[in-house]
């Protein structure tokens, strides 16, 4: 009883300290409402029936693979957060993409041809591919993974270490079994390969395919918007594929690195977002005529950022790797549901800036007020399998400039 009381008192102290702390852990953007620690049971009932707005094809995919769908939804969450980070200084800052209990796939702006639409589509497609590929390597999905390969790799590592140690015995003439515990001599270590493939790579092929099946239209695209969506989705996924990196682990006795096994891992999603942000700033404005031949023709009036030679020095850009759009963006100054614009009233601006976060730009000429404000915002977000985002709530009290 005394131990039980002590545990309750310790738990109370921890909770009290958390409540008094300026950073409080909170759950946010939980699309599936699965606020549970550990691995939830992912069934068609717990995943598919909670989502509104799924197409018939998406519902069939979800029923067949609820665990993969849940991972894809987490990728959408990651993409929304990254979108808000990358466009935090823009008039349209992705805030309207976030909604509890619903997917952003049918938001108005994703059905338009704006530069912002292109960026959002590419980022969402990248998020799905990235999350599914990562979940595969964790062994969380039934449809992919490499548990059997892990066992094979363990056997291969043991065999490799035994062979290397036997070579050590033969070379040094040692007969005592304790020699097996010694690291390899430098000259022998240099003779064997420095690394070989092993471990459990992030299955980017599986992630890419699921992202394509989940988000892209089937058949030939019938109009400019469908072609733009498929194109930008492909660009987003390609960024993930192009930036896969090699990660290695050392094997050997007593912490030595007699040989290494290496595998592919997905890039940090912040890198994916940063690359797509650069492509957003130089996106190509294309003709909207519906030739339906899969070829985009840049508009010459778009200036340096809209032509194939627009990267400077006459160097041609590869259209297949650039974001494309066909509608000039509105100013996003006022609330307008038809274009998914929340407006910029109440946005915090920087009066000393000359960039897009300046008060003159964000406030659209309406002016701003100076207020003392205590505000809370999400910070230090971590994405947990599955399917929620755990953030800290950071509170700030400061004088701010707020758009009228």
TrEMBL record:
A Pfam short name: wnt
Gene Ontology MF terms in the entry: cytokine activity; frizzled binding
Primary location class: secreted
Localization per record: Secreted, Extracellular space, Extracellular matrix
Family: Belongs to the Wnt family.
GO cellular component terms, A-Z: extracellular space
Keyword entries, A-Z: Developmental protein, Disulfide bond, Extracellular matrix, Glycoprotein, Lipoprotein, Secreted, Signal, Wnt signaling pathway
Record-given protein name: Protein Wnt
PANTHER family: PROTEIN WNT-10B, WNT RELATED
Keyword Signal annotated: yes
Record-level GO BP terms: animal organ development; canonical Wnt signaling pathway; cell fate commitment; neuron differentiation
UniProt-listed InterPro entries: Wnt, Wnt10, Wnt_C, Wnt_CS
Function: Ligand for members of the frizzled family of seven transmembrane receptors.
